[in-house]
Amino acid sequence: MLVAATEQAALAELERQQLVPIDLAPAAGASARERGARVPAAQLAMAYTQVGDLVKAGVPLLRALRLLGNRKDAPKLGAVFNELADEVEDGAELGAAMAKRPDAFKNVHVAMVRAGEKGGFLESALHRLGGFVQHQVELRRKVVGSSIYPVVVATVGLLILLGLFIFFIPLFREQFADIELPTLTKLLFALSDAVRNGWWLGPVLVVGVSVGWYVGSKKPRVRRAAATALLRTPQVGRLLRDLAVARFCRVLGTLLASGVPMLEALRIAKDAAGFQQMAEAIEEAAASVRSGEPLAEPLERSGLFPDDVIEMVSVAEAANNLDSVLVSVADTLDARVDRLLTTTVRLIEPLLLLAIACGVVFVAVGLILAMMRLTSAVQF
């Protein structure tokens, strides 16, 4: 028996030994990560665009896949595209080969490539897919980047307050032992004792909430309740809803532009919605479209889509340019999300600083009041 890191490595070693393989299979103890690692989305976006460029320039698809598979700077990407090249060399279509690797290629990617192959515009589909994935990467980076500063401020502020309550405040307890403490100072010392004696409750609470969320997220009822609470949260709910609607519009518009049929495109876009309520609304819309009803009407009945989006979808259906309008709607919503995210972050930053300042002022005033009473007692 021969054990190798990948199927290609095993075949190469057998060929070197002039042996013929009888059976090739993943090792029994191999984990899912070892059998198929996820490829970073940014690398996938660049790979789709590069393959599209090569095919457009007249390079055969198999040769283009091999070129991507030979990249040394991205071993995961290279291994995946070498597997695709092997499948294509054996006569399989690119979309069918991608469908065998759900760990690396999402349903929307497979659907767009299959539509491009069937319609004879594979290079165009690959370019569109590369742009689609790159836009998702940039949007994710923008959201994460905007949240870094508030998280850092909150973390530093929490550490400062913990340091004050655990190490600084107890230093004054003996100095104030002989006087009647003001109410504010008593509360300050009580909070300090609670923090010093119950600090371990914080990690336990975090772990408990994390485990509870992980277990509860497996249950549709819990996910639905959590999504409802998030969508009803002021400012945050609007932000999440616009993000979900933009994602749905972009996926659906890109699929339709790539030649994917409406019902199949709705089925795939439903999974990209992100919220169970929206997925259910899209599923109902697909059923209505199947019976001949326009798309805009069932989306409007769900109450999850903004009125301006519904109006644009309705006009686009009448003008028969739904694909381009949906992508335009997604761009508009992304710009709106960007503005809303910037406003929210700008609102959170001073609120965090104000909360930290209030905590420091509370400590300072509590100690100053006790010092004033101690001074008065010494004078008399």
Question: How are the elements arranged and paired?
Answer:
Blueprint: H1 7-16, H2 32-35, H3 41-56, H4 61-69, H5 75-89, H6 94-99, H7 107-119, H8 122-168, H9 183-197, H10 201-216, H11 220-232, H12 236-257, H13 262-271, H14 276-290, H15 296-302, H16 307-319, H17 322-379
Helix pairs in contact: 3-4, 3-8, 4-5, 7-8, 8-9, 8-17, 9-17, 11-12, 12-13, 12-17, 13-14, 14-15, 15-16, 16-17
Please provide a brief summary of the model.
This protein has 380 residues and is mostly helical. The chain has 17 helices and no strands.
Keywords for this entry:
Receptor-associated Protein; mainly alpha; 2 domains; 380 residues; single chain; elongated; 17 helices; 0% strand
Structure description:
It is a single chain. The chain has two domains: 75 residues, no CATH class; 246 residues, Type II secretion system (T2SS), domain F (Receptor-associated Protein). It is built from 17 helices and no strands. Helix 7 runs antiparallel to helix 8. The longest helix has 58 residues. The radius of gyration is 29 Å and the shape is elongated. About 2% of the residues have low confidence.
The class by helix and strand makeup works out as: mainly alpha
Beta percentage is under 5%
Stated plainly, the CATH topology of the largest domain is called: Receptor-associated Protein
N-to-C terminal Cα separation, in Å? 94 Å
Helix content class: over 70%
Radius of gyration: 29 Å
* Top-tier CATH class of the largest domain: Mainly Alpha
**Most strands sheet:** none
User: What's the CATH architecture of the largest domain?
Assistant: Up-down Bundle
| Shape, per Cα inertia axes | elongated
Residue stretches low in confidence (pLDDT < 50, at least 5 long) are 28-35
Instruction: Please identify which CATH superfamily of the largest domain we are dealing with.
Output: Type II secretion system (T2SS), domain F
Q: Give me the strand/helix succession.
A: HHHHHHHHHHHHHHHHH
